[in-house]
Write a structure and sequence with these properties.
Blueprint (H helix, E strand, L loop, with lengths): L1 H9 L2 H15 L9 E6 H7 L4 E7 L5 E7 L1 H15 L6 E3 L2 H10 L2 H6 L11 H8 L4 H13 L8 H17 L6 E6 L10 E6 L4 E11 L21 H20 L6 E8 L7 H12 L3 E8 L12 E4 L5 H15 L6 E4 L8 H6 L4 E6 L33 H18 L5 H14 L1
Parallel strand pairs: 7-8, 7-9, 9-12, 10-11
Antiparallel strand pairs: 1-3, 1-4, 2-3, 5-6, 6-8, 10-12
The structure holds ligand BES and zinc ion (ZN).
Protein name: M20/M25/M40 family metallo-hydrolase
Keywords: Aminopeptidase, Hydrolase, Metal-binding, Protease, Signal, Zinc
Pfam family, one: Peptidase_M28
């Protein structure tokens, strides 16, 4: 109690944020009784949080930013976290590991600097209106609404609870049904995450008809959390509806899958749709997948992250393109796609810096792949709080419900349209060239 009061009094906002998230990582190893957790965090954060850390060592990341690896006591952090989260309403970034060598390997392997600068602009073209155009009017608010309703009705989607696994299996089944008629599409559970407890990620793959080795990824996280889970041994029965964060992203992906597959679209490139496990406890599911793809030498040419698409006050914008922890050419492409397809529908875009690796795109970036994220319109930011990202204020609480978003999914419609443009333009469309060549030959023979 004494520690809690003291920190509440002196801890700066930025540190409070980080500490809140650290607790999620700390308890998230699947072994709540773990003695210590090793975090990688910004030097600035560590300096303020020094009260908590032991055996800290200084590092620099690939961008030259000063980092610290520090050993923390999950019990201490866990007790602090709930208080901070409730008081400060903030989120924060850090990476957590079970051992110091793992934390060190993460920094040494990190490829964020290269991934941000990958010069892929030449790949990012817009010339597939024939496919994308007809898709846009098909986006159904009712479908997105229904999926958010189903997902947020799971008691929670916490990565270590049985409900968290059941929700992943429900997404698998629902995507399977949408791909049932397609012999070029498969749906699988990705189980290769060693610290995701029992929660798998879900991957739907549409095999590219011409360039199957070039891979386009659209994803969002399927887990949910509330600050009430930020205790050493959480009660796995607690509600965590996560309607905006991030049932909205999964529902948006589901609508993109429905429309694109039902249209008979055959992409030239391989397109993968992903529901990531265990994002809320430190981007774990996406990190496992991105690192596996890196180790396997998979050529991922673009990743779109959809995390929180549905909350919007009257802010004069519909969507914000996240500018940091993202590939620069890809974020430029996002803006071009928006201008080509959403502006004619009345859409307005702006930009947002999270100032930390706020979602799964950061896992792909850290693994060296070009990734980016689009984020909800939200509400006006508090000018006195640089950490306020103008997001839905009820995330990570039991109030993250559709009812508290006007019982409407209409704001996610633009994100589904944006995702359809991204999939159609980066995946392109197989135009039956082989058939055409065959017909030409045939006609020559006939002549
Ligand atoms: N959806 C949030 C990220 C977010 C929240 C972005 C508000 C912008 C505004 C995401 O699910 C999340 O909570 N991420 C964690 C960080 C992660 C490394 C555990 C967070 O922000 O605390
Ligand atoms: Zn989220």
């Amino acid at each position: 109690m004494g520690v809690r009061r003291r920190l509440a009094a002196v801890i700066p906002l930025a540190v409070a944020e980080i500490v809140a998230t650290v607790s999620a990582h700390a308890r998230g190893t699947g072994s709540p009784d773990a003695e210590t957790v090793y975090i990688v965090t910004a030097r600035q954060t560590y300096d303020a949080a020094g009260l908590l850390a032991r055996e800290a060592t200084a590092w620099k990341d690939s961008l030259g930013r000063e980092l610290v690896i520090a050993q923390l006591d999950p019990l201490q952090i866990g007790a602090l976290s709930r208080h901070v989260h409730e008081r400060e309403q903030r989120c924060g970034g850090f990476f957590a590991f079970a051992s110091r060598p793992e934390a060190e390997a993460f920094i040494v392997r990190d490829r964020t600097a290269e991934a941000i600068a990958l010069p892929l602009g030449g790949l990012y073209t817009i010339d597939n209106q024939a496919t994308v155009g007809p898709w846009l009017a098909q986006v159904s608010e009712a479908n997105i609404h229904a999926t958010i309703t189903t997902l947020s009705a799971f008691r929670n989607r916490y990565y270590a609870s049985p409900y968290g696994r059941q929700a992943a299996e429900w997404i698998r089944d629902s995507w399977q049904a949408l791909a049932a008629e397609r012999d070029d599409a498969t749906v699988e559970l990705f189980q290769g995450c060693s610290n995701c407890s029992t929660q798998p990620s879900v991957i739907l793959t549409v095999r590219g008809a011409e360039l199957p080795d070039e891979v386009v990824v659209l994803g969002g996280h399927l887990d949910s959390i509330t600050s009430a889970f930020s205790v050493p041994v959480p009660d796995l029965e607690q509600p965590a509806p996560g309607a905006d964060d991030d049932a909205s992203g999964i529902a948006t992906l589901t609508e993109i899958i429905r429309i694109s597959l039902a249209s008979g679209w055959k992409p030239r490139r391989t397109v993968k749709f992903m529901g990531y496990a265990a994002e809320e406890v430190g981007l774990r599911g996406s990190a496992a997948i991105a690192n596996r793809f890196r180790d396997d030498g998979i050529n991922v040419i673009g990743v779109l992250q959809l995390d929180m698409t549905n909350y919007r006050q009257n802010v004069g914008r519909d969507l914000r393109i996240v500018s940091d922890f993202s590939n620069t050419a890809l974020t430029t492409y996002f803006a071009e796609l928006f201008d080509a397809y959403l502006v004619p529908l009345g859409g307005v875009r702006s930009a947002l810096a999270c100032n930390y690796g706020c979602s799964d795109h950061a896992s792909w970036t850290s693994a060296g792949f070009p990734a980016g994220m689009v984020f909800e319109a939200g509400r006006p930011q508090n000018p006195n709080n640089p950490w306020d990202l103008g997001a839905f204020q009820s995330i990570h609480s039991t109030a993250d419900t559709l009812a508290n978003m006007g019982n409407s999914a209409s704001n996610s419609v633009r994100f589904a349209q944006f995702g359809l443009a991204f999939a159609g333009e980066l995946g392109k469309t197989y135009d039956g060239a082989e058939d055409a060549i065959f017909s030409d030959d045939f006609e020559v023979v006939v002549d």
